[in-house]
Design a protein that fits this description.
The structure holds 2 protein chains of 2 kinds. Chain A is of the alpha/beta class. Chain A has 2 domains: 88 residues, Translation factors (Elongation Factor Tu (Ef-tu), domain 3); 158 residues, 3-Layer(aba) Sandwich (Rossmann fold). Chain A has 9 helices and 16 strands. In chain A, α5 packs parallel to α6. The two termini of chain A are 26 Å apart. Chain B is α/β, with parallel strands linked by helices. Helices cover 33% and strands 16% of the residues of chain B. Chain B has 18 helices and 16 strands. In chain B, the strands form 4 sheets. In chain B, strands 3-2-1-4-16 form a 5-stranded parallel β-sheet, covered by helices on one side. Chain B starts with 25 loop residues before the first helix and ends with a helix. Classes of the chains: A alpha/beta, B alpha/beta. At the A-B interface, α1, β7, α8 and α9 of A face β5 and α12 of B. The complex binds flavin-adenine dinucleotide (FAD) (2 copies), iron/sulfur cluster (SF4) and FE2/S2 (inorganic) cluster. The site of one flavin-adenine dinucleotide has 43 residues of chain B, from α8, α13, α15, α16 and α17.
């Protein structure tokens, strides 16, 4: 058998429920591109889960992930400290974000999606785009990666559901307003809760604004051998892990994705309860 | 006369049947994941070996060895078992076979060595597979696990991509010749299908880990969590290695493409088996990966993979496990032993029936399979009679889980990321008879080159390639002309 191999060099809580981990993985760091993810298995008994890389540094030989602690595995990651190790780490997986000088790119992120959004908007900017970034969360305290995203923004908007910071309301409100004001938009990029991505796609569709979304189907291997991650794109079955995770938002069957992500809800509850009991 | 053994020492009376293999009782075993056949005692193995006639091969006389894709010296090792020299017997096997504990369990010996066994003409053949298994298990229990001796280093470095049976064979064979081997494997454990596909009750994972450990003890370096094509391409590997062997298998699940296939509860055999075997979901919640079977599981397909799915479902606690297969019993592609075990365990075979649609409930969960009865028509290209739908014969089966086990295709990642590697229409890598590809210094073998086949054929490919690679590394660096592969890639 094998030992745990990948060392955490830095662990930090971004909010009470979001852990940011910087992990030593020099080879992955060298190859990683914006939009790609890794599969991490915290312990030998653990589950393989996909997490998008929130950052990667070939110089330091590290990658950074940020996880919203919603279930057993992510909560377990939330307990890790610098010096701890994880059992398995595979990447970089999935297709990188398609980069090109599109012109005006509006990127929209919500919740944990903000961590995933950061390297993507950075790359959009490096490709010469005018980057307009709209970020949102339930309240001010849950806004993560705000400063980082700001540094790669040409225009920057903040929204909170409770109005504790920036626009009081949803990220989609800001987008709607831009469209109503006839702002030139060449591409919309959205990452966050499924419902948010669906709403954004529905807004841009009538205006024919190309919209890319980053999907989060349940995965097992993350390398294309099982089909757990299948999503329906224009009526066709695709594998989220190898054909994605980014897809044309106007072609995605979001309702099917929502239903498929509920597949193991009873078991997830059992797993969480057992873990919390043991703690 | 030619069929009789030459110069038998004395005419001996052959025990007509194999000595029985003790097995877990079907009623008991469907409640656990322990291995079904328990294994034989040393005394039984000696008696079984004594059924062997020690035949000699001849130009017109095929014996057991001729049926073995890796050419184990079968009569020679059996002779040692007859005399109780187990250590010598396993040494003889190991000369040709790097995974004896695996092959002694999952090889289709009935069509190979045992199919040609001379005793088998009038009686049951010698239980060669059982003897192989016995010896490998004996070795694992009795012999100490030191470093395995290999010759001094040749200075040549070889990269093996994929740690399934084909990759492990090449690694073992070339390490034995003194080359420095590094295996790159995408998953967290080595073994390929042996760890993620074939269930624990047929092939305990501890055994696969022990076989891999043996290869590691030969000085082979294994890098897990390494997806070639993502972390490094074959071209990048070639900067550091003198030769590359690609053995990435056929891991891409095939689908029915019928309406409703993306409903919850419908999954590929690969997803189901990977969750259960690789991720150990059968021990949920001790292990974190979930799996659910429900009351009735319908498995579509009739091969080994389908049998594994149906039998695993029973062990996960479903009330009824049904196999839906479009041809008849005679055409079931699974090994007979697997079909027999499935029947013993109470798997229901719904033969001559094929799915037409999957029907879901309001929450997006599958609830029924709509199927249609079939009859056998004219033989098709494969020689098997083609199944034809009987109009109007549709029927419904309730199901909470549907497993699609209708085949696997070659993994596309390495061919996709290696521009000058020629592939066939089926997506397999085009290789010549030595396993050489259109790219100089790159070989391929196992399911990625042949399409989904068997463990031993993958190992046979590995043996051939290893021989060719050794020649390339030590003497002759010539390579077939590009036209050879042009031809191979259109022919197939
Ligand atoms: C490509 C991709 C990138 C992702 N990136 C991030 C990220 O950067 N940060 C982050 O916090 N989350 C990310 N996710 C989601 C993350 O993988 C899940 O939240 C995590 O697996 C939940 O595991 P759990 O055991 O903590 O929770 P559970 O209680 O097991 O599950 C909670 C919910 O998470 C989803 N989920 C469960 N298991 C899996 C699985 N194996 N694969 C995918 N989803 C699953 C299900 O919808 C489930 O209802 C990403 C998902 C994908 C597919
Ligand atoms: C459920 C099931 C039951 C079976 N039962 C039997 C049986 O009873 N008897 C029998 O003889 N045969 C059986 N088979 C068939 C047999 O297992 C295969 O033919 C055999 O394993 C093929 O060996 P291989 O080395 O070519 O590939 P595999 O065993 O598929 O191994 C390929 C390896 O390559 C790795 N890999 C893939 N892509 C990459 C990449 N890009 N980078 C790094 N690594 C990669 C994979 O993770 C895997 O470990 C069964 C198959 C299945 C699925
Ligand atoms: S195993 Fe069968 S074929 Fe082989 S030598 Fe013995 S009797 Fe002959
Ligand atoms: S996660 Fe298995 S194929 Fe995508």
């Amino acid at each position: 058998m094998r030992a745990k191999m990948y060392e955490i060099v830095k662990a930090e809580k971004l909010t009470p429920d979001v852990i940011k981990l910087e992990i030593k993985a020099p080879q992955i760091a060298k190859k990683a591109k914006a939009g790609q993810f890794i599969m991490v298995t915290p312990t030998e008994h653990g589950e393989r889960i996909p997490l998008t890389m929130a950052d990667f540094s070939p110089e330091k030989g590290t990658i950074t992930i940020a996880a919203l602690e919603i279930g057993k595995t992510t909560k377990e990651l939330g307990t890790l400290k610098a010096g701890d190790k994880v059992f398995s780490l595979v990447g970089p997986l999935g297709l990188p974000t398609h980069l090109h000088n599109f012109g005006n790119v509006v990127s929209i992120g919500g919740g944990i999606g903000l961590a995933l959004m950061y390297p993507v908007v950075r790359a959009f900017r490096q490709s010469g785009n005018h980057t307009i970034n709209i970020i949102g969360a339930k309240n001010e305290k849950l806004l993560i990666y705000e400063d980082e995203i700001k540094t790669v923004s040409d225009e920057f908007y903040v929204c909170t559901d409770d109005g504790s910071k920036g626009h009081h309301g949803f990220v989609s409100d800001v987008l709607k307003k831009m469209i109503a004001e006839n702002k030139k938009i060449d591409l919309v990029y959205a990452v966050g809760p499924i419902i948010m991505m669906k709403v954004i796609a529905n807004i841009t569709k009538p205006h024919n604004i190309k919209t890319i979304v980053s999907l989060n189907p349940i995965m097992v291997d993350g390398t294309g051998m099982c089909g757990s991650c299948r999503v329906i794109i224009s009526g066709e079955t695709k594998f989220g892990c190898v054909d994605g995770p980014e897809f044309d938002g106007h072609a995605v069957d979001f309702d099917n994705l929502t239903a498929r992500n509920r597949r193991y809800m009873p078991e997830e509850a059992v797993s969480l309860k057992k873990w919390q009991g043991a703690k | 006369m030619a069929d009789e053994p030459q110069q038998p020492k004395q005419p001996k009376k052959i025990v007509p049947k194999k000595y029985p293999m003790p097995e877990q009782d079907p009623k008991e075993r469907i409640r656990n994941f322990n291995e079904v056949p328990i294994g034989q005692e040393a005394q039984t193995a000696i008696l079984e070996a004594q059924r062997c006639l020690q035949c000699k091969r001849g130009p017109n006389r095929k014996v057991c060895m001729d049926g073995c894709p890796v050419e184990i010296d079968i009569p020679v090792f059996i002779k040692q078992v007859q005399e109780g020299n187990f250590e010598e017997a396993i040494r003889i096997i190991r000369q040709k076979q790097n995974l004896p504990a695996v092959c002694g369990r999952v090889c289709p010996y009935e069509n190979q060595c045992e199919g040609l066994c001379v005793v088998g003409k009038k009686n049951e053949p010698v239980g060669i597979g059982r003897l192989e298994r016995f010896l490998a298990d004996w070795e694992r229990k009795e012999m100490k696990k030191g470093k395995v001796e290999v010759p001094p280093p040749t200075g040549k470095q070889v990269a093996v991509v994929g740690a399934g049976p084909a990759g492990l064979t090449v690694a073992g064979d070339l390490a034995k010749l003194g080359h420095k081997i590094t295996i790159f494997e995408a998953l967290q454990y080595c073994g390929g299908v042996l760890v993620y596909g074939i269930p624990e009750f047929r092939l305990p994972k501890e055994i696969v880990h022990a076989e891999v450990d043996y290869i590691r003890r030969m000085g082979v370096d294994i890098k897990n969590d390494f997806v070639v094509g993502k972390l490094e391409t074959v071209d990048e590997l070639m900067r550091d290695y003198d030769a590359v062997f690609v053995a990435t298998g056929a891991g891409l699940p095939d689908w029915t493409n019928l309406k409703g296939e993306n409903l919850n509860g419908i999954m590929s055999a690969n997803e189901f088996l990977t969750r259960v075997n690789l991720m150990k979901a059968f021990k949920f919640p001790e292990y974190d990966t979930p799996i659910r079977a429900g009351e009735r599981v319908v498995t579509i397909g009739g091969g080994n993979v389908a049998m594994d799915c149906a039998r695993t479902s029973l062990r996960l606690g479903c009330k009824e496990s049904v196999i839906l297969y479009r041809r008849s019993d005679a055409e079931l592609p699974a090994r007979r032993e697997e079909v027999h075990h499935a029947q013993q365990e109470g798997v229901r075979f719904e033969l001559l029936a094929a799915p037409v649609e999957f029907i879901g409930d309001d929450c997006g969960n599958v609830k029924q399979v709509k199927a249609i009865r079939m009859q056998l028509g004219e033989p098709d290209a494969s020689g098997r009679r083609r199944p034809v739908k009987i109009p109007g014969s549709e029927f419904l089966i309730d199901a909470q889980t549907v497993l699609i086990a209708i085949g696997q295709s070659p993994n596309p990642l390495v061919p996709m990321t290696t521009p000058d590697l020629k592939t066939t229409k089926e997506g397999t890598i085009a290789v010549d008879e030595e396993g050489r590809t259109s790219k100089k210094a790159v070989w391929a073998g196992g399911d990625i080159a042949s399409g989904a086949a068997t463990v031993i054929l993958a190992m046979g490919d590995g043996k051939k390639a290893a021989k060719s690679m050794h020649r390339y590394l030590t003497q002759d660096q010539s390579w077939p002309a590009p036209e050879v592969f042009e031809k191979l890639s259109c022919e197939m």
